[in-house]
Every structure is written in structure tokens, then in C-alpha cells.
Specification:
CATH architecture of the largest domain: Roll
Distance between the termini: 45 Å
Order of helices and strands: EEHEEEEHEEE
CATH topology of the largest domain: CPE0013-like fold
Structural class: alpha+beta
Largest sheet: 5 strands, mixed
Oligomer: single chain
Strand content: 25-35%
Mean pLDDT: 87
Number of strands: 9
CATH class of the largest domain: Alpha Beta
Amino acid sequence: MCPNSCVLSISGDEAKPQIENNRCYRGADFALKELRDPERTLTSTMRTRNGVLPLVSVRSDKPVKKAELREIIIQLDAVTIDAPVARGQVLMESVGINKVNIIATRSVAARGAEGV
């Protein structure tokens, strides 16, 4: 299914696939990308040290090759981030083949901070 909810059909071989049921050119482009080089935005969590929460949610700033997701998650698991963490803060730079940045998607205050 494409992002516009078209139920796509792909036939033929990988060298010359035939794409059907797309309502626009973007559906065909999407199907070809999915067939040849699928990518996803990585979403995960990272451990925090001295934070009011044990984990901070994170995402990649651009899509990651699907085959590379597991490797990047292993890298994220090896790192612990010191609190405080601000939403939008870049926690890791130039990770993986696509050189993605890993960004916090929420704030985590430090334990013992005023008002916490």
C-alpha cells in the first residue's frame, strides 16, 4: 500500500517491474523505492543517566536504509545519555551509511532539578 492508500500491484521482474493501481506518479515511485532500496524513519529509545525517566524517545532526522536499522539500534543501546535532555536535541551525529542524526523527541529533566 502506498502512502496515499493505493493498493499497488507489482508484476514482472526486478529489472523491469510493472506497477498498477497507483493513482499518481508518486505511488509508482514509492513502489520502486520499496522494491529496490526500502528506507524507514528510525524510532527508538536511549537510556538516560540521572534522568527523571530511565529512557528518552528518539528518532532519526531522515530515513535509514531498512537493512541498516538493526545495526543502528545496537549503537543506540550502547550509549547512555546524561540528563537533562531537551526535545529536538541531537544526541548522536552522523550515524550509519546515510549519516543520520539521532534526535530526542521529548524532554527528560535531571533528577533533583528544581520543581521535579
